Amino acid sequence: MAAKMASGRLAWALRGGLRRGWRGLGARPGPRSPPPSSPPPGARGLTASAPRQQQEEFPSLEEKPQFPGASAEFVDKLDFIQPNVISGIPVYRVMDRQGQIVNPEEDPQLPREQVLKFYRSMTLLNTMDRILYESQRQGRISFYMTNYGEEGTHVGSAAALDDTDLVFGQYREAGVLMYRGYPLDLFMSQCYGNASDPGKGRQMPVHYGCKDLHFVTISSPLATQIPQAVGAAYAAKRENANRAVICYFGEGAASEGDAHAGFNFAATLECPIIFFCRNNGYAISTPTSEQYRGDGIAARGPGYGIMSIRVDGNDVFAVYNATREARRRAVAENQPFLIEAMTYRIGHHSTSDDSSAYRSVDEVNYWDKQDHPISRLRHHLLSKGWWGEEEEKTWRKQSRKLVMEAFEAAERKLKPNLNLLFSDVYREMPAHLQKQQDALARHLKTYGEHYPLDHFEQ
């Protein structure tokens, strides 16, 4: 068929089809004009210097369409494109569930100390989650979101980035920040909203941010970070900064309009960005079967012209390899990449959620006991002789001690000064804010005994 089309195109050109000034390619009727000096987009193979002895209509069904909005062929049979006519996008992995390397050529061959850092970061995050979750249940903090089951997506992707790459998180990427060196003291201070919190107690718990580590402060509205990240990536491209942006979000957030706008802008503006989707099975209580009908999130990438891959999010090496290659090419080629990391949210969506209302205990236990990213990496370390039972016991005890020390220190600290309610928005305080600050001061002077003012810095 391709050979037939090529010969038909060549024969038409040799017969002088260009004499009609490209009108045969769908141009509107009107005065004839000389042929252009070069063929229009999509007309490769046609030469402007071809002989023009005759005028003859070419057979349209044998010619490639010249419409500027798509790349396709003509057909003469009505047939709608059906979803799921091809097998699903495969899931890239490096390790099996027992921690064994499936294909030695895909082994990243990371040094022992780096793999141990993977493991320590993942288990330390898990320990911090358990303590802060219980803290919320005891009424010590107002809110918390755990990362159970998704630790491999955090650490594998964070390790593949350069230190200066900009991170836009959603609200379940604490492990990315931890891997970059964010201290436990600041995690705790943010969740407690005390005087050591860089955000000065103004944000909900788990809304971390760190300018020094190039981690943009998390905000609550869903998917707003996606177009923001694209804008940052476009700026990096304009500056030739040799810098990538990574934007994390869940498969539920991918249903927001901001996601589609972000994908399209990134592709058309050719931005060095990695869209990292954590497909953990649920958007709060809504399972993926009720969220979309297509083949997950990775299937959307080609429709926007984005290079895409689906990886096993419970395999830290697979996540690392995919993110490293996406990062390299995003910077070198100035183009976006989409990674869909398949994983499972073992914990509740947040401390405001009871997942037992919409999923079974057996389902959760399977992922917790049979296919957990931490246990998979532990199996790998054991098989390499890089870790043992004694190291495990020692580290578990040490990591809990580190978290508890930071937890207890954060709980003892005072809350930020009340006057910080009015700062950091304007360079010079406007009259209406000054009026509010004065009113608060008068109120507390009169009724201060009814407030725990001794809990705040003066």
From TrEMBL:
- All copies of the Dehydrogenase E1 component domain together span 119-417
Q: What EC class does the entry list?
A: oxidoreductase
Species assigned in the record: Ornithorhynchus anatinus (Duckbill platypus)
Family from the record: Belongs to the BCKDHA family.
Q: Which residues cross the membrane?
A: none
- Span list, region Disordered: 22-66
Predominant place of localization: mitochondrion
| Assembly mode | Heterotetramer of 2 alpha/BCKDHA and 2 beta chains/BCKDHB that forms the branched-chain alpha-keto acid decarboxylase (E1) component of the BCKD complex. The branched-chain alpha-ketoacid dehydrogenase is a large complex composed of three major building blocks E1, E2 and E3. It is organized around E2, a 24-meric cubic core composed of DBT, to which are associated 6 to 12 copies of E1, and approximately 6 copies of the dehydrogenase E3, a DLD dimer. Interacts with PPM1K.
Gene Ontology CC: one annotated term: branched-chain alpha-ketoacid dehydrogenase complex
Q: Name one GO molecular function term.
A: metal ion binding
List the catalysed reactions.
Answer: N(6)-[(R)-lipoyl]-L-lysyl-[protein] + 3-methyl-2-oxobutanoate + H(+) = N(6)-[(R)-S(8)-2-methylpropanoyldihydrolipoyl]-L-lysyl-[protein] + CO2
Looking up Pfam families in the UniProt record yields: E1_dh
What this protein is called in its record is 2-oxoisovalerate dehydrogenase subunit alpha
Give its E.C. classification number. Answer: 1.2.4.4
* Function summary: Together with BCKDHB forms the heterotetrameric E1 subunit of the mitochondrial branched-chain alpha-ketoacid dehydrogenase (BCKD) complex. The BCKD complex catalyzes the multi-step oxidative decarboxylation of alpha-ketoacids derived from the branched-chain amino-acids valine, leucine and isoleucine producing CO2 and acyl-CoA which is subsequently utilized to produce energy. The E1 subunit catalyzes the first step with the decarboxylation of the alpha-ketoacid forming an enzyme-product intermediate.
Q: Which cofactor does it need?
A: thiamine diphosphate
Which CDD domains does the record cross-reference, listed alphabetically? TPP_E1_PDC_ADC_BCADC (cd02000)
Locate the compositionally biased regions of type Pro residues: 31-42
Q: Which UniProt keywords apply?
A: Metal-binding, Mitochondrion, Oxidoreductase, Potassium, Thiamine pyrophosphate, Transit peptide
GO BP, sorted A to Z: branched-chain alpha-keto acid decarboxylation to branched-chain acyl-CoA; branched-chain amino acid catabolic process
